[in-house]
Amino acid sequence: MIRKICIYIPVLMALLLSFPVTGQERDIILQDVNEDDLGNVSDAFQENFFEALKQKGIENYEKAITALLKCEKVEPGNAVVHFELGKNYRFLKDYDAAIQSLQKANRLKPNQEWVMVELMETYYLNNDFEPAILIAKKLVPFNSKYQNNLADLYFKSQKYDELLALLDELDAQLGINEFRLGLRQQIYTMTDNTPAQIQVLKDAIKATPENEMNYLNLVFVYSAEGMTQQAFKAAEEMREKFPSSKVVHLALYKFYLDSNNTAAAVESMKTVLISEEIDPESKFKVLNDFLGFVNENPEYEKDLKEVITLFAESENSPGIYQKLGEYYLLKGQKEQALTFFEMGISGNLDNIDLLQRILLLQLDLGRYDEAARRSGEALDLFPGQPLLYLIRGIALNNQKEFKGAEQILTFGLDYVIDNKKMEVDFLEQLAIASSGLGNAAKAKEYRDRANEINKTLN
């Protein structure tokens, strides 16, 4: 029997309420029904169409497509069927198939907002920006909100001239707003148009004077261009406008450093590093500058340690100490590196990598008592780590505790597997321990074994 789909509106409503279809989809389908978009269709068509809606609602998109293809065989010129096919293909991320179905729906029922929106969004997901732009332009007369889509598409496709012209048009119609100012700033940054970037930031300050980031960005642009006086003036204006701001110190500390106002620079850096309103990435940049400053001015090392402790606590990041230790280690400042590594291990006892770094540095710096004690404690936590036995043996040998060294090295050698270089290190330390105990024959035996292995390594 052939019937109008509108006869089945109560049935359709029941189906729509029985599974999760979005409000927008429900409006579109009811709109289609009310306008007789499906036309005169058979019972079999209706059954498959409703089955497709049901399967789409429970995210069985393949089954929905199967049901819709059955509808297509019955009604190949039905735009709603192709529209639904397009959506299901899009959900499966088969964008080419989705575009093909939606294009057909658009040809069968041209200039329908709901079809064009779906097609524009699918082009966007498929990175086909040119056709998406054409559709966005056609959608603007329906609703000015599509100008935002058009702006985004211009940006994605790097059509900056067209985007700036659109922003000018929107500013003239609607007045300046923060979103469009931010978009302009991104464009000018990407195109290295510094004068325009400065102007847009000044406009942003006038439009939204309560946004301190506009001041800060202006300071950074001036600084990057070497316009030091303008940058400092903008920073001072920012501090005057926001007297309780912590963010302003992201700009001020550099000026204080450059002008040799050391005390003010240190206070600004402290303010940044313990501030809750400044993001961790910005803090790390300041921290690097602080490290460089202390490297040149070691008398401020106490201030650095104090601030780092507060920083690590506020960010809940004990790993910061390890990063600082690595920084000093690369600079060859082993004492400093060891200090920060030890600060880091106190809140991170199961960090075997950090623990081994500390022990090796203690040996390197001749701190054998500390290395012997800490390696003993470490073996209680990590009894299967051969390097810890080796470190403890080296420390004991250097303390002339040869008996203890021989015992720990002999025990630890059993844990060395497929590491010939480490095996040689153990044997050489055992030779030292045996020699220290007056057992020259045993010492020679260990050295001979080490030499044989070394031959295979070379």
Describe the structure in your own words.
The chain has 458 residues and is mainly alpha-helical. The protein is built from 26 helices and two strands. The chain starts with a strand and ends with a helix.
Task: Tell me the distance between the termini.
Answer: 90 Å
Q: Please summarize the sheet with the most strands.
A: 2 strands, antiparallel
Oligomer category: single chain
- The overall average pLDDT, rounded, is 82
Helix-strand pattern, N to C?
Answer: EHHEHHHHHHHHHHHHHHHHHHHHHHHH
CATH class of one domain: Mainly Alpha
Structural class by sheet pairing and helices: mainly alpha
Radius of gyration: 36 Å
Counted beta strands: 2
Tally of contiguous helical segments? 26
Bin the helical content: over 70%
Classify the fold: give the CATH topology of one domain. Answer: Serine Threonine Protein Phosphatase 5, Tetratricopeptide repeat
Helices and strands, with pairings:
Layout: E1 2-4, H1 9-18, H2 23-34, E2 40-42, H3 43-57, H4 61-74, H5 79-91, H6 95-108, H7 113-125, H8 129-139, H9 146-156, H10 160-174, H11 178-190, H12 194-207, H13 212-224, H14 228-241, H15 249-258, H16 262-273, H17 280-296, H18 301-315, H19 319-330, H20 334-345, H21 352-364, H22 368-381, H23 386-398, H24 402-413, H25 420-436, H26 440-457
Antiparallel strand pairs: 1-2
Helix pairs in contact: 3-4, 4-5, 5-6, 5-7, 6-7, 7-8, 8-9, 9-10, 11-12, 12-13, 13-14, 15-16, 16-17, 17-18, 19-20, 20-21, 21-22, 21-23, 22-23, 23-24, 23-25, 24-25, 25-26
Protein name: Tetratricopeptide repeat protein
InterPro entries: TPR-like_helical_dom_sf, TPR_rpt, Ycf3/AcsC/BcsC/TPR_MFPF
Keywords: Repeat, Signal, TPR repeat
